[in-house]
Amino acid sequence: MPASPSDIRKLGDLAAEAGISRIHVLAWRDLDDVEAGGSEVHAHEVARLWAEAGIEVVLRTSFAQGHPVRVRRAGYQVIRKAGRYLVFPRAAVGEALGRYGRRDALVEIWNGMPFFSPVWAGRRPRVVVMHHVHADMWKMVLPPNLARLGDTIESRLAPPVYRRSRMVTLSPSSKAEMLDIGFKDELVDIVPPGVDDRFGPGGERAEQPLVVGVGRLVPVKRFDRLVRAAVAARRSRPDLTLTIVGTGPEREALERLIEDLDAAAYVRLAGRVDDDELVELYRRAWVVASASVREGWGMTLTEAAACGTPAVATRIPGHVDAVAEGRSGLLVDGEEELGRALASVLGDDDLRARLQAGALEHAATLTWTNTATRILEALRDEALGIRPTPTRPPARVERPGPAGG
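Above: the chain's sequence. Below: its structure in token form.
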């Protein structure tokens, strides 16, 4: 549901209570970036709602290819300067020197590499949003030396710097990983993401079993495993088709894999699609699937759930929270189990109908209004000097095992 006038008034009242009229947000990438994903959608939705409540929001990111340096979108200002790596020191220096104007509060989005805001941000209220710990993702996306550096910064150097920072993460499983590398339990708030209003039930299902996977074509998403799992599931459902939505550096490798498996007749790489096409695909799909090995949440799974489409996904941090296991979808361990679960859901009408109903119920609990409100409440508390009370012993969340296969 869209934000109600009372929801917007509440956001405005929270900001007024804290004396906050201007918030700066630091993020790695902008929503218009060719590599934008769930983190960028999250930042946009929160900034949009804050702007609607009358808060002046400035989002500072790296340069987006083919887009101007400055733009106003959905009521907030976007400043895109510097490349993928230089954005971190340049944004920090710019903020420290006041180049982007006055700020009453700061939100740092820590997406792999931090901006080290505790070093330069001063005493103004500040909240850090960390979607997930990257851990083994580093070696999947960077050369060995850079991967070791990234992992060292994330797991060893940065946590002590942020030891007194108010943190926000998306799920209990992501929080558990943060506690493992040294963050304090009482300073990490769990605030799940919302689902955009455009995702909802409608239209008709595909006549034949359609599996849809959505995401950047990068190693961590393991679309190769999804392709092989679909091939295995066709032994039970020979009419199965798979559509993969997204762009990225793994496309050529996936094309070769599809050719080697003689699967071109039923596996389609759709590339980038617009919003309307994505909603239609979710609604037509019988199942949305993910073989990813690392996620902060799994927003494509809850987007599909809002369309009444259940999920089959790997049992990893993030997925275990985005999917209500046994109610909105199935979680699996490894490639072989992924193939069996796809065949099971596609071949059992009663199971699929039950999961479809559960998916709608689960998605209905997730709203961007709640996300924007909860983060603003954390900023309000920081502004008023309200600090969470330590718990003894720390409330740890059992960490799911890795997805094998």
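The mean pLDDT is 93.
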